[in-house]
Amino acid sequence: xxxxxxxxxxxxxxxxxxxxxxxxxxxxxxxxxxxxxxxxxxxxxxxxxxxxxxxxxxxxxxxxxxxxxxxxxxxxxxxxxxxxxxxxxxxxxxxxxxxxxxxxxxxxxxxxxxxxxxxxxxxxxxxxx
Length: 129
Prior knowledge:
The chain has 4 helices and 2 strands; from the N terminus they run H-H-E-E-H-H. By secondary structure, it is mainly alpha-helical.
């Protein structure tokens, strides 16, 4: 077994079709995607985002949460909208009878947008803080 076989396993898993049926389509493809997208839109409109502080290790405290205000919150909101769109295209379109033939293109576009959004978000966080 090679050292980096997990990369091939991950690529194989992501290239497979989505698992599930109509319940997964509704719960994950609509429910989870709308929750993530709504929080992302809220972050963009209010220009305030609360996330888990990954640099803080330990028990729950006020320092457990990280607050972004202004441009970093907007870029974080766009990042979350990209994640929500990926979830929607992957699990709703991928499990739909008529849309399953077209889900790969918008899923790939949402992944590219996510990569761009995370790069812009990291740049704004380093620049603004």
